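Supplementary Note 3. Input sequence used for the single-chain structure prediction.
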Amino acid sequence: MIADHAQDRMWRRLEGLAVGGAALYLAYMLEPDWPWWVWPVIFLAPDLSFFGYLFGPATGAITYNLCHIYGFGLGIAALGAAGWGADTATPWLVAAGLVVLGHAGIDRALGFGLKRRAGFQDTDLGQLGRKG
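The predicted structure, written as discrete structure tokens, is reproduced below.
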């Protein structure tokens, strides 16, 4: 049973690597001329959700997870594709959503799973800082 959980975590981490890599590549294809500083600003923006932990572990887990699920980045990209705020598609918003999606994927690949209400270290991929 433990081996099954470890294998499940491995597959979810590989999936995160694939999602993160593909999303960042597609974002670059859409916006290759962005200044270098735009990439880390957008990439790290979901981590502002850490401030939710100032209001306790349950609130922190909710804010963190809302900004780190794949649907958050996909939603931003979909708004851009639908032309939110414009009459036509907005490629920079699609690319920004893909960068946010890339952040979530890379986080999963590194083992930073979605958080549980018990605390930041307790994730769907296991305890941070512990093997297995």
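The mean pLDDT is 88. The two ends are 12 Å apart (CA to CA).
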